[in-house]
Structures are given as C-alpha cells and as structure tokens.
Amino acid sequence: MLRPTTLAMILAGGRVDELNALTYYRPKSAVPFGGFGRVIDFALSNLMNSGIEQVAILSQYRSYSLINHIGTGAAWDMIGRYRRISVLPPFLGTEATDWYRGSADAVFKNLDFVEYHRPEEILILSGDHIYKMDYQEMINYHHEKDADLTIAFIKVSREEASRFGVAVINDEDGERGGKIEGYWEKPEEPSSDWVSLTVMCFRPEVLYKALRQNQQEHSFEFGKDIIPMLVEEGYRVYGYKFCGYWGYTRTVEEYWQSNMDLLGEQPAIDMEKWGLRTNLEHRGIRDFQPAHMGQAARISNSLIYNGCVIDGEVTNSIIFPGVIVRKGTVIENSVLFFNNDIGEHCRLNKVVADVNNTYESNVVIGAEPGSTAHKVTVIGWNNRIPLQTRIEEGATVYPNLPQTKWPAIVKYGEVLR
Amino acid sequence: MSRFKDALVLLLAGGVGSRLNILVKRRAKPAVPFAGIYRIIDFSLSNVMNSGLSKVGVLTQYKPLSLMSHIGNGEAWDLTGRSRGVKILPPRTGETESDWYKGTADAVRRNLDFLTDNPAREVIILSGDHIYQMDFDAMLEYHRSKKADVTVGMMVVPKSQIHQFGAGIIDNRNRIIGWEEKPKEPKTNLASMGIYVFDYQYLMACLMRDKNDLDFGMHILPNGIANDNVFAYPFYGYWRDVGTIQAYWEANMDVISPESGISPQKWQIRTNVEAEGRPADRAPTRFGTQTMVKGSLISAGSDIRGTVINSVLSPGVVVEEGATVRDSILLTDCVVKKDSVVDLSILDKRVTVGTGSTIGAGDGHDTVNIVAPSHLYSGITLIGKGARIPEGVSIGRNCVVDTKVDEGQFQGSSLADGESILLAEK
C-alpha cells in the first residue's frame, strides 16, 4: 500500500458558550447528535468515506469525552499501518504558553507532528458541523488549480452570512468554484452570500510559512488571520462550492433544528443509507438489546436506537440508546440523550435533555399541554427532576443539581443552577 | 477476576440442529440469529465471560464458517489478552478412523492435545445451543465443595419433555444415583442441561479408558454415576434448548414479554458487532408518521412505516406503508413491501416480500408441512435466506420457501398450507 498523501487535522477544541449546559463537561464536537453518535462522527465519517485515514484531532477543552469517543479509531477503520487517529492535546511549552491560543496556534504547536508525516496536502476542518461531503473532490479541485489554499463554501442568505467567514469567489469554474478575490471573517455588511464551512486544504509549505509568520501577531485564527493574510499577499486561494446540507450547531436552537432536519419524509441526511459511523464501544451502546416497544407505545416520525424501552407516545423526536418512556408520557419535538429515564404521565415538548436524567411522574417540560413550544428547553446531565415539577419553555437546567435546588416551577427562560 | 480462572472451557458447537430446517441450511445451530441482534452461541460465550473464565476451545464441525467469523478473535467476549483466548477446534483427519465426531465425548477425546496443552484444575464442558444465564463460577465452587468428579447442571422440566434429555435421579445430597438417557418412560423430571464440570484429571482418565465411550450422556456419565462421585447442580432460571422451530419462535417471543424471565441486556449478553470484518453500524431506526408498533423488539437501522405487532425485528428491516408484520421473526435486512402481510412467520436474512403479498395466510394452522411434518406443525411458515417473494402472492401456514428462491420459481399466485418450494441441492 502506498503511503497516504493527505493529512487531516480536525479542530475539535472549542467549548462554544452558546450550547451552554450541553458543553459544560465536553467540547462541542463530543456533543451527542442524531440518536446514537456525536457531532464529530460526521467529520470522521466524511474522512473515512473520502479515503483519508491519517487523522489528527486537536482538542483542548475537557478532552476526556472526546478521547473516549475516538477510542482506537477502529470505528472509522482508522487503525493500521498508515491508518491512525492521533489526539493532540495542548502541552507545556518551554515558555509559559501552554494553551492553544487559537486554531492556527493549535496547528502551529503541532508542526513537528505535521512535518513528520510529510503530507502533500493538509486538510484542516472543524469537528463541529453536520454535513456529508467527499473531501476528495475538493482535493482534486485544489490540485487542478495548483492552489496554495482551497476552502469549501456554501451559499446562505445574506442576513445569515455575517455570522461566518465570507468570500467573494470569481466565476472561474462556475458551479465548481473559483479564485477568492476577498475574504472577511464575520463582516457586518457581507459582500457575498458564500460562507466558509471551515474545510481548508493547504499546500504544506504555504501553511508552514503562514503559521510561522502568524506567530508574530496577537491573534491566531485561520478565519480571522491566516486566510485574509494569504488572500492579501496574493497566494493562489480558491473557493470550492459545496451544495449539500450543512447543519450548523452553534446555538441550542440551531442544534435542535439540525437534529429535527434528520426527521421527516425527506431527511437532510439519511444516516442509515449513508453509513454514518460512530464508536459503538463508547457508553457501551453495542451492549443494548433491540428497542422494546410496549403495548401502549405510539411512535410517529422519530428516530429510536437500541436499548430504548417505549411504552408512551413519541412524536417528532430523536431518542438515544437507553431512554425509557413510561406509560402515559408524551414526548414531542425533543432530543433525549442516552439513558434518560422518564416516569409516568410526563410531558416533554421541545426539550433537549443531556444524559442520565431521571424524571419522576407528572413532570411537564416545555409548552403548556395542548400548545406547541417555541423555545428549546435544555436539561443538563445527571439531574433528578422531582414529582410534578413544571419547567416552562426556554428554561435551562444546569447539570448535577442537588435535590434541594428544585423549585416547583422553573419559569419561562429561567436558568436554574 | 474469578478465583477459579484456571478452569478450561470447552464449548461444543458442532451440532447440526436439523430440526431448525432451512435456518441451518447454511449455518450451524449456534450461529442462528436470536432476539434481533444476537446469535444463539452469544449466550454461552457471554456466560463464560461474565463468570470470569478466560480460556475457551470451541469445537466446531457442521458448516462452521459463519460461526467462526462470528467468534473472530474472541474480543467481543473479552477473550483476548496474554492469558485469555478462544481457539476454534475443527475436526481433523485421523489416521485410520472416519473423520467426523461420533459423539460429545469422542469430540473432546479427539482434541486431547488441546487439553494436554492447557492444563487446568477443572474442565467446563458446555453446549453452544442454549438460551440461558448461568454463573459458572458458582457452579465451580459447588463442584469443589462437593469434592465431585463430575458436576452436571440440571433443572426440572415438564415430564412431557424429559424424553429429549438425559434424566438423573438424585439423593438428598444432590448426588446423582441413577441416570436415563432420553427415557421414554421417565422416573424423574430432573433433566441435564448439557453443562458439565469435570475434574481435569478425572476427565483425562475417562477419555483414555475406553475409546468406545463416545458420548457423555450415554457412556461417561452412567459409568461415573455407577463408580464415582457425580453431583447435580440445580438450576432454577430461564433455560431453553431452541432446537425446534416452535421452541425458537417461543423463545424469541419470550424476549418481548418482560415477565418471561429472559433479558439479554440484563444478563449482559454480548454479541460480536462486526460483520464481514467491519463494524456493523446501524443508524437509529426511523419511524414514519403512519406507524403502529406494539409489543415488539426493533433493532437499529430499521425503517418502519407500517404496522408491527408482537414481533422481533433484526437490524435493517424495512416495513413499508400499509404493510403488517404480526407474531413474526424477521432477520437482518428483510424488506416487507407496501400492503403486504407477514403473519406467524420466520423470515431469514434479506428476504423480500413483494407488494400486496401475504406470508402466513388463512386458518390452516393444523395442516402440517408435508415434507417436514415434525418441523412445522403449529402454523409457522419459514422463508429462507435471500428468498424473493413476488407481488400479490399468498403463502399459507406451515410452508417452507427455500433459500434464494426468486420470483421466477413461483408457480401460480398461492402456496397452499403445508406446501414447500425447495430447490435441488447443487
């Protein structure tokens, strides 16, 4: 077998404040997603399906959950002579600059690792997004254009564009892409509706030079610093146009919506047909028996994994392994992570609930019975919600609350900590 | 870690299990899928793992391929490591005798070198054919406390069933003082579960004594009971020999009802999640908007748009709009197309049921299968691996449709109760 030429580096360090209670104990890339996996499974499965099997993960914030999830890499077939996932946590430098100061700094601090692999192209991508993409097509385009840097872009509405990296791409290759004529990170007035997916393919020498040069500055981000610098200095920077689904999960509402996009007659991504991979050893999900549907079960438009016991009603929801839904309970428009144990006659409407929560009977979360919630309610992990507690919509419940903290009603939008 | 980890386990997994009909056409009985995601042998192997035992030899014989790939390197049952391991022991060509095992004791005797290479204090001999949970560590402790030469796992079964088993008569210390192998008129209702703990030296001596002692139940045990210390180890839990279509169907249905006492997950039964050498990942099951699902086990990767009642579905089963699956067992990747009905049937892997067809039609439950009346007599219809049932046909009760039968091999639009479509062996 030939030595592989591509080295992929996944940026998976960020906590992302807006996800709040869900990222209290884990980085965003390790947040559960889609009924059995984690957010990073999408990037890893994309790599596997693109035949890129030499992967490094740059992690920083609470890496344990992520390292645990990656395991040996065997889940993505990345174990073998040239197949490997290396997790690269920050380390103490000779000077006191221990933590990664930004995405570009994280790669810079691991340049010895990168150079050791002698790659012909370096793919740098975010581990935080939900999408299905063949990176090989982009790499091919990168080589066709003899580019120094090729970045994937997707079209969004002009109003949304200001939240992302925005580029003006010339129409050199029409639908496929073109040369980048200007790049702005989160501009107030975007001059284009093509935004960056944070999927970048670098010519190695250019990356090394840019990172070393960047060390003189005070900010160390690919989007804010490296890309604009290379565009300005006249390097061959190309935009590759991606037209598939892109699930963005920065806020809780977006995270919820990206999950909901997996439901319905035309799911944004059909994970089963695509063959999304996750690590079945993580949380022992391989040891769950098939889902058990009781005599009172009613299920509509939902995704449910092994290990669930359903004897209530589940509609428009995503149910992770080991969730128990008891008689008389109604779950609607919700995403329930691993091992939520829901008592009888509860009602959960538009809830995102982290792992290991227990709900005593008659708990009502979200909208009033009979109406539909507009805002997502978030329940942090390892809580026991007392009998008949009412949690109004838009509330956030922090992880690990002691029993004495619970009021009878958690009010609309309240943060219980 | 077990205090008794120096016991060696021999798992007898060579049985044909021919009463399982076409379910064992291409695989040995221990490799037959069970309860959605498991295979029968997972129960024995997981019991071994959960008892802290770590050295296992698996004696195979009949169609061992799918069994061997399922066991793999034993990693699924934590059987890899410096002193842990699982060895597949296939039959070997002897110098003069015919090559196939002539009985359980003969099978062990012909692997005497494996025993010699792995000295232990005891040898636990198990069958890979049964659905149960048992702590062999406790049984070993019992064996030692009784200072037994052999300890036999035994349980009470209805008198009507005792003719299928070895039956023992015990004294008030649980010492076995009488033995009948498959008695027609039983004197006892205590049946052997085919689980033996042998003192290592005693077993070696038994095996070397007389080459004509071919079977444990027929020869070795009666001999030991007459001359040595053989004890019964009483077992009181759920235990089934799923060796018949009826028993296989019933045990699968038991997994659906919590009160039956069988729970693979609580028993910590593990299976090998790799298939064809790769992790057999499946996404969560997708339920459509018009579904009705009740009293069923549904494995991941399925796509349910129709009705599923009182059934066990393996991974990747598709039930389209308007289709109904009732009282049935569907193995991996079966497709039940629009408006079709599957009733009281077992569908092996990758069966396709064409639009508007019925498997298990009518009330002819009492019309036994003509070719195999002792296999199919209660109304269960059996469809072989990869068979393709055309659109708009009706298949009756107690029918068999062979492996890989395709649309072209159907004649007419119905198959009467008790009829079969069998292909000639190539």
Question: Could you describe the 3D structure shown?
Answer:
- The complex is a heterodimer of chains A (417) and B (426).
- By secondary structure, chain A is α/β, with parallel strands linked by helices.
- Chain A folds into 2 domains: 6-260, Alpha-Beta Complex (Spore Coat Polysaccharide Biosynthesis Protein SpsA, Chain A), CATH 3.90.550.10; 288-416, Hexapeptide repeat proteins (UDP N-Acetylglucosamine Acyltransferase, domain 1, 3 Solenoid), CATH 2.160.10.
- Chain A has a 7-stranded parallel β-sheet with strand order 15-18-21-24-27-30-32, with no helix packed on it.
- In chain A, helix 2 (64-70) links the parallel strand 4 (54-58) and strand 5 (84-88).
- In chain A, helix 3 (103-109) packs across helix 7.
- The relative contact order of chain A is 0.11.
- Chain B is of the alpha/beta class and 426 residues long.
- Chain B has 2 domains: 8-260, Spore Coat Polysaccharide Biosynthesis Protein SpsA, Chain A, CATH 3.90.550.10; 283-421, UDP N-Acetylglucosamine Acyltransferase, domain 1 (3 Solenoid).
- Chain B is 17% helix and 27% strand.
- Chain B contains 8 helices and 35 strands.
- In chain B, the strands form 8 sheets. A 7-stranded mixed β-sheet of chain B has the order 5-4-1-6-11-8-12. Chain B has a 7-stranded parallel β-sheet with strand order 17-20-23-26-29-32-34, with no helix packed on it. In chain B, strands 18-21-24-27-30-33-35 form a 7-stranded parallel β-sheet.
- Chain B is globular, with a radius of gyration of 23 Å.
- The relative contact order of chain B is 0.11.
- The A-B interface holds A 34-36, 74-75, 77, 265, 267, 270-272, 275-278, 280, 286-295, 297-307, 314, 318-320 and B 35-37, 255-256, 263-265, 268-271, 273, 278-279, 281-301, 303-304, 308, 312-314, 316.
- Strand 16 (302-304) of chain A pairs antiparallel with strand 16 (285-287) of chain B, so a sheet runs across the interface.
Shape of chain B: globular
For the biggest β-sheet of chain A, the strand order reads 15-18-21-24-27-30-32
Q: Give the N-terminus to C-terminus distance of chain B in angstroms.
A: 50 Å
Return residue spans of chain A where pLDDT drops below 50 for at least 5 consecutive residues. none
Looking at CATH, which topology of the largest domain in chain B would you report?
Spore Coat Polysaccharide Biosynthesis Protein SpsA, Chain A
Radius of gyration of chain A: 22 Å
Briefly note the structural class of the backbone of chain A: alpha/beta
Mean pLDDT over the residues of chain B: 92
Which architecture of the largest domain in chain B would the CATH scheme give at its second level? Alpha-Beta Complex
